[in-house]
Amino acid sequence: MISELFTMTVLIGILSSGVRLATPYLYASIGETFGQRSGVLNLGVEGQMLLGAFTAFYVAMNTGSLWLGVLAAMIVGAVMGLAMAFVTVNLHAQQGISGIGFYLFGLGMSDLLFQKMMGTVRTVQGFPKIGIPFLSDIPGIGDIFFNHNILVYGAYLLVLVAWFVLNKTNLGLKIRAVGENPDAADSLGVSVARVRYFTIILGGTLSGVAGASLSIALLNVFQQNMTSGLGFIAVALVYFGAWRPFGVLIGALLFSMVNSLQLWIQVLGVPIPSEIAVMMPYVLTILVLVATVSKVRAPSALTKPFEREE
Amino acid sequence: MPESNILPSGKPRIDSLELRGITKRFPGVLANDHVNFDVKAGEVHALLGENGAGKSTLMKTVYGLYHPDEGEILLNGKPVHISSPTDSINLGIGMIHQHFMLVPSLTVAENVALGLPSSRGPLTDLDAVSKRILELADIYGLRIDPSAYVWQLSVGQQQRIEIIKALYRGAALLILDEPTAVLTPQEVDELFVIMRQMTKDGHALIFISHKLHEVVEICQRVSVLRDGRMIGTRPTSETTKQDLANWMVGREVGFTPDRGNVQRGEVRLKLENVQCGSDRGTPGLRGVSLDIHSGEILGIAGVSGNGQRELADAVTGLRKITGGKVTLENADITNLPPAEITERMLSYIPEERMRDGMIKDFTVAENMILREHHKEPYSRYGFLNLKNISSNADMLIKKFHVKTPSQETLAKNLSGGNIQKIVLAREISRSPRVIIAAQPTRGLDIGATEYVREQLLEQRKQGTAIILISEDLDEILALSDRIAVIYEGSVMDIVPRSEATPQRLGLLMAGVHPE
Ligand SMILES: Nc1ncnc2c1ncn2[C@@H]1O[C@H](COP(=O)(O)OP(=O)(O)OP(=O)(O)O)[C@@H](O)[C@H]1O
Ligand SMILES: [Mg+2]
Question: Looking at residue A294, what is its pLDDT?
Fold first, then answer.
C-alpha cells in the first residue's frame, strides 16, 4: 500500500498540487514582505484574506465575472490596508495588537456577511486551467508547472516582479531604507508615512487576491474561516524567506509541497492517523523557522512607529 | 572669496544665511531663546556651547527637522520658509548630524541616491550615481568606494558618505554637528583639508565642536550659546583657546587636572595572554597581557580598530575569549557571563553609549539604576523602591550637572552630551573596584570633560583600578600612570608616564619600535 505513494502518477500529482497550493501563500507573503521591509508588521493578513475570499466569491457568483470578483477582493483588501495604515502610521498603534484586531474584524465580518448574504455553502466555476502551449505537453513537467489557472501563474510572476521592484527601483530603495533607518530616510526628504501607506495598502491588496485565489481559483467555494491559519503561515513565511521574495518562494513551495503530500496521504488512505498528517506542514514550519532564525537580521525598524521627535 | 557664483558641484552659492530671533521650546525646556546667527559664503563659523546649550536644536531648525516657535530665517537676504528637510535640501542646505543618518544595510551609492530622482525614471541609476560620487570625491579628495556596504566602513569613512550625500544634493551651506567627536586625529586632519577646500570654493560652513583647538584652527568666526541664548560672536583671530573656554562656561576653566600623589596597590585586574576574535576583519586580541593595579590609571593608546573594542568586550564578558585568562581580584573571570562580572564591581563605560550603555526609551532615573536595579536600595523582594531610585537620580543629576527638565524625561530627549553623562554618572557612582572607560569624554563639553577627568582621578585616589581607552592622546597623557600602546591586537609596549611623549607614543601607535 505504501508503495502506491511512489508511483509516477502520484508523484506528479503531489508536485502539481504543491505548485498550485503555494498560490495564496505567495500573494499574501509577498504583500507582507513589502510591508515588513518598510518596517510594518501586518498580522491582519488572515482577516484581509477572509474578506477578500468572501468578496471575490460573492461578486463572481452574482455577476458571473471571475475578474470582477478578483477586482472586488483587491479593493476590499486595499481598504483594509488603508485602515491599517492609518492606525499604524498616523496613530502609532502597536502593530502586533492592531494587526490581530484587523484579523478578528475580517474573521467576524466575513462570517456575518456570509450568513446574511449567502446562508449556505455554494460553489462557483473557478478560473479554468490554461495549458501553456508546447510546455504543458512535456510529460510530467508539463503537468507540474504548466497546466494551472491564471492566478497560479500570476503568483509566480509576482515573485519576480517583487524582487525587481525591491532591488532595482527607486521605490524599492526607499522601502528598504524606511524599514532600516526611517530617520535617515526622513532627513533626505523621503516621506516615511507615504512609503508605509503604499506598502501596507499593497499588502492588503495582495492579501485580497490571496483570498480570491482560494475561493474562486483553487477551492471554488466560500466557507466560514476557510483560510484556517493560512494568513498567519504567510506571515511566518516572510521570516522564513528572510524578507526576500525568492526566499519566500522557497518557503511557500516547501510548505505547500508538504501540505500536498499530506493531502495525498489521506486520499490514498495510507495508514497514518490523519491528525498527524495534518500536523505535518505546521510542525515543519516550526522546525524550519527554528533552524533558520537569526541567520538574517530583520529590518531594524520593524514594528517601530516613526515619529519625528518634536 | 572666489568670484564665481557657481560652486564646483554646479550648484549656486549661498552668499549668506541669517537667523533672526529663533525661539524653540520643548516641554519644560527653552532650547533656543531669540537666537541671532549668521554665516557667509567662504567662511567656517563655529557654534560653541555646553552640552544642552541648544546647538543641535538650532541647526535642526535650519534643516527643517524642527519648526521654530518664533523667528525667521533669511537666505541671501530674503526670508524663506523651511518646513521639512526637502525644503532645506532644495535651498542648498546640507547637514551632517551628530548621530549619523545612514542605512547600514545599503551601499554607499544607495545611501547617496536615496530620495533623489533618477535619470532612469522609476529604476535606480546606481552606476551614474557611483560615477558622480567618484567625481565629487575627486574634487574634494574624499576616498570612498561607492559599492561598499555602509556597515563595513569605519566611522571616518561613514562621515565622508555624509559629506558626499550633502555635496551630491548641491549643498552650498553645510552644517557639521560635532563631526570630529568620533574621528581619530588623522581623520580630523583629513576632514579639515576637505573643509578648507569647500570654503575656498565658496561654500558656507557651520561647525560645532567641543574641542577648542579645532575651532581656533579651522574657523574664521565663533559664536557661543549658553542656556539657549546667544552670548556673542567674535572673529577667531582675536581669541585664544583659554578665552573661548572661559567665555563659554562663564568661569575660569583649568586644562590640566591635578593628579595628586597616589601610591599604587595590589593588582586588581590581570590579563594573561588574552586572545579573541573580532568583527569586520579588524584584528581581535593576539595575546594581550596587562596588570592593572589598585590606584592606577592604565591608558590604552592606539589608532581605533586595533583591538581596543575587543579588549573592553573581552574583559567585561561581552566577547568570547578564545585563549588566555582574565583575573579580577584573584578570581578567574574568563568568559563569565557579563552579569557575574558586573557583580564583582567592575564598571564599564562603553564607547557607543547610545547603543551599549543605556535604553533610549527609559527615563533618566531608570537609566541611572540599570546596573544595580535588582539590588538594595533600589529593589527589595523583587519590588522597585521608587523613592530610592528617585533620590539617587536627583543626587546624580546634581553631581554630574545633567541638564534635563526632570528625572522622568526620556533619555532620548536629552542633548548628546547629557546622554553621555547618565552613563558616566551611573558607572562611576557605584564605587567600583575596576573601571573600564572607553572614550569617556567623547562628546562632552569642556566643563563636563574636566569633571569626568576629576572623577576618574578621584576614583584612582580611592584605590580603583582604571583602564582608560582613548584616542585622545592629550587625555591619555593627562590622566594615565602607565600607557600601553595597542597595535593590531597586540600590546607594542607599556610606557611609564615619565617617559611618555607624544612622539614616542605616535611611533608605537604606527607599529614602529623606536630602538
Ligand atoms: N526632541 C526633544 N524633546 C525634548 N527636549 C529636547 C529635544 N531635543 C532637545 N531637547 C532639549 O533641548 C536642549 C538643547 O538640546 P540640544 O540637543 O540642542 O543641545 P546641544 O547644544 O546640541 O548639546 P550637546 O553638545 O550635548 O549635543 C536640551 O536641554 C535638551 O534636553
Ligand atoms: Mg548636540
Answer: 60
From the candidates B91, B102, B103, which should be mutated to test the interface with A, based on the most A CB atoms within 10 A?
Answer: B103
pLDDT, position A307: 84
At residue B437, φ and ψ (nearest 5 deg) are -115, 110
What are the residues whose beta carbons fall under 8 Å from the beta carbon of A123, sequence distance 6 or more?
A: A220, A221
Write out the three cell numbers for B106.
Answer: 545599503
Give the residue carrying C-alpha cell 580630523: B188
**End-of-domain residue from the set B155, B170, B185:** B170
Contacts of A242 (CB under 8 A, 6+ apart): A292, A295, A296
A187 reaches B (C-beta below 8 A): yes
Residue nearest to atom 3 of ligand 1 (CA): B413
Cβ A189–B110 below 8 Å, yes or no? Answer: no
A176: contact with B, CB 8 A cutoff: yes
**B281 to chain A, closest Cα gap in Å:** 19
B180 lines ligand 1 (CB under 6 A): no
In this structure, the answer to whether residues B147 and B179 fall within a common structural domain is no
User: In the structure grid, which three cell numbers stand for residue A23, read together?
Assistant: 498560490
All three cell numbers of B292, joined, read: 592593572
Residue with cell 530583520: A298
Mean pLDDT of chain A: 91
Q: How many domains does chain B have?
A: 4
Q: Tell me how far apart the terminal alpha carbons of chain B are, to the nearest angstrom.
A: 49
Average pLDDT in the A258-277 region?
84
Residue A73 belongs to what H/E stretch? helix A66-85
B69 to chain A, any CB pair closer than 8 A? The answer is no
From chain A, the residues in CB contact with B97 under 8 A are: 187
A129-131 and A147-149 strand pairing: antiparallel
pLDDT at B1: 46
- CATH for A2-121+149-292? 1.10.3470
Q: Do B106 and A180 touch (CB under 8 A)?
A: yes
- Closest by CA to B396, choosing from B420, B365, B442, is B365
Residue showing cell 611618555 = B500
Tens-digit pLDDT profile for residues A13-66: 999 999 999 999 999 999 999 999 999 999 999 999 999 999 999 999 999 999
**Distance of alpha carbon B87 from alpha carbon B82, whole angstroms:** 5
Domains of chain A: which residue ranges?
A: 2-121+149-292
In three-state secondary structure terms, A88 is helix
pTM score, two decimals?
0.84
Same domain, B164 and B176: no
Kindly give the pairing relationship between strand B434-438 and strand B465-469.
parallel
Preceding peptide of B27 cis, ω within 30° = no
Q: What is the pLDDT of residues A247-256, one digit of tens each?
A: 999 999 998 9
Quick one: which H or E segment has residue A21? Answer: helix A8-37
Instruction: List, for chain B, all residue ranges whose pLDDT scores fall below the cut of 70.
Output: 1-4, 254-257, 280-283, 514-515
All 3 cell numbers of residue B200? 575656498
Distance from CA of B102 to the nearest CA of A (A): 6
Domain range for B420 is 360-430
Closest ligand 1 atom to Cα of B53: 21
pLDDT tens digits, residue range B216-248?
999 999 999 999 999 999 999 988 888 888 888
Cα B451 to Cα B125: distance, rounded to the nearest angstrom: 51
| Buried-exposed string A191-203: b where 16+ CB fall within 10 A, e elsewhere | bbbebbbbbbbbb
Measure CA B337 to chain center. Answer: 28
| Any atom of ligand 1 within 6 Å of the Cβ of B414 | yes
Q: Residue B62's closest CA among B99, B18, B12, B14? A: B18
